[in-house]
Amino acid sequence: MKMKKKSRWVNVIKEHCPGLEVSSEAAVLESHGCDWTRFRKPAPSAVVFPHTVEEVSQLVVVAAENQIPLVPSGGRTGLSGGAIADAGEVVVSFDRMRKILDFNGVDRTLTVEPGVVTQVVQEYASQQNLYYPVSFAAEGSSQIGGNIATNAGGIRVLRYGLTRDWVVGLKIIDGRGELLECNGGLVKNASGYDFRHLFIGSEGTLGFIVEATLRLTDPPLPSRVMLLAVTGLEAMMDIFQQFNSALILTAFEFLTDAAMGYVRRGQDLPAPMGTEAPLYAVLEFECADAASEDLGLRCFEHCLEQGSVLDGVISQSEAQAADLWRYREGISEAITPFTPYKNDLSVRISAVPAYLHDLDQLAKSQYPDFEVLWYGHIGDGNLHMNILKPENMTVEDFEEACGRVNPAVFELTRTHRGSISAEHGIGLLKQRYLSYSRSEADIERMRGIKAVFDPFNIMNPGKLLS
Ligand code: MLT
Ligand code: ZN
Asked: Is 332 in the pocket of ligand 1 (CB under 6 A)?
């Protein structure tokens, strides 16, 4: 009965949206029914590829009338299952909406369709001698609509903020199929509730982004990247403070020696230096002149004398900087074959040492048989805890085992006043833990907001909110 209803959905869409590109090919259902998470099997009824805003609107009207659940799909690089369709939903792919619509040099804004790849935005900005600063490892395939829907962060948040800080206008199709225009590229707009910010980070649960206007800024100053061998966690935070007070840091990342081992093996990288250490920092600072470089080297020497740093390397060219970044940016891809269970946690920067210390103890006692890797954006308080699946364990048993420890991890996070999702989103995988970061009253308020924009509960249902 259920299957019949679901196959009817596809026929209804084909009948009422005659021009819409619809695919029910097995390979397309498989590829477009999930993101980078490997904990659910994709099972959509169809994947649709709208080419225009009007097609998205018409589709949503039909879906609302017929109670058809829709799952938005961008570059599918998400890590919380926000784009998974595992229950016969219809996937709405933005792959055919990839146009750059407008560049305005006076306003310094770029208006794009949601399917434009993040790196294309960065490259377009740089051709105009401007800069779009949101950057992360998946930028070569992630799409701007997905970045906005998850408020993507990445490696330069401590200098430039999150995606939210760069969105000055949005067009949305809400759960009734109506078009909302939010903020229209204005710098100042004090005309009441700014809906734009509700849609940013809403994981497609309130409406679908069909157009975005992004703010661009001055191109960055030249920079230097350092990779440092660090003696421990307290030392790491001392180093952060030293460099952060002397220089303009654009990134401050960390990885453990175990993560270093995986990235080196996975990406076939040489040892970055002759010395090994329990932790490594990858930092980047603005370096407009020789004085800034000297200052960076003096900070490094001071840390060496203090004993917080054992060794280090500094880039002398853009190519060397890119090579050093690979030790940090390549980790996620290098560990993908080990089906990592990811917890993406954050606390205030000052709370990082105590939190990570407690968390590491907890991981050692609760996951004695699993390998736990740490890396992340320590300069903005965001830690990525990755538990690797033992080869002989099924994905189902592994997820269950990780799930048994999650309450302790999230309780500890709550004690340190942090968040259970810093930048990956809640999606499908973290939804049942939302109450560790948000009060019941807040969750009720979120439901109220969802009911306003998505009264038929068809926009990515079951994600973020249960
Ligand atoms: C990263 O920081 O590398 C990304 O958030 C991806 C990941 O956590 O694996
Ligand atoms: Zn990250």
From this structure: yes
Question: If you measure from the C-alpha of residue 423 to the centroid of ligand 2, how many angstroms do you get, rounded to a whole number?
Answer: 7
Q: Please report, in tens digits, the pLDDT of each residue of the chain (466 residues total).
A: 355 677 799 999 999 999 999 999 999 999 999 999 989 999 999 999 999 999 999 999 999 999 999 999 999 999 999 999 999 999 999 999 999 999 999 999 999 999 999 999 999 999 999 999 999 999 999 999 999 999 999 999 999 999 999 999 999 999 999 999 999 999 999 999 999 999 999 999 999 999 999 999 999 999 999 999 999 999 999 999 999 999 999 999 999 999 999 999 999 999 999 999 999 999 999 999 999 999 999 999 999 999 999 999 999 999 999 999 999 999 999 999 999 999 999 999 999 999 999 998 999 999 898 999 999 999 999 999 999 999 999 999 999 999 999 999 999 999 999 999 999 999 999 999 999 999 999 999 999 999 999 999 999 999 999 8
Q: Which atom of ligand 1 is nearest to the CA of 331?
A: 3
Instruction: Return the best residue to mutate from 282, 326, 332, 377 for the ligand 1 pocket (most ligand atoms within 8 A of CB).
Output: 332
Query: Closest ligand 1 atom to the C-alpha of 253?
Result: 2
Ligand 2 centre from 105 Cα, in Å?
31
Classify residue 123 as exposed, middle or buried by CB count within 10 Å of its CB (0-12, 13-18, 19+): exposed
Q: Does residue 326's CB lie within 6 angstroms of at least one atom of ligand 1? A: no
CA distance to 70, 265, 293, per residue, from 226 (Å): 45, 21, 11
Residue 266 near residue 326, CB atoms below 8 Å? no
Sequence-ordered alpha helix ranges (H) in 151-281: 157-160, 196-199, 233-246, 257-267
Helix axes 352-366, 233-246, angle to 10 degrees: 150
* CA–centroid distance, residue 198 to ligand 1 (Å): 24
In ligand 1, the atom with minimum distance to the C-alpha of 154 is 2
Nearest CA to ligand 1 atom 7: 332
Q: Which helix (H) or strand (E) holds 283?
A: strand 279-286
Ligand 1 mutation pick, 155, 163, 331, max ligand atoms within 8 A of CB:
331
- Residues 152, 450, 37, 351: is their CA dihedral positive or negative? positive
Query: Residue type for 34, please?
Result: C
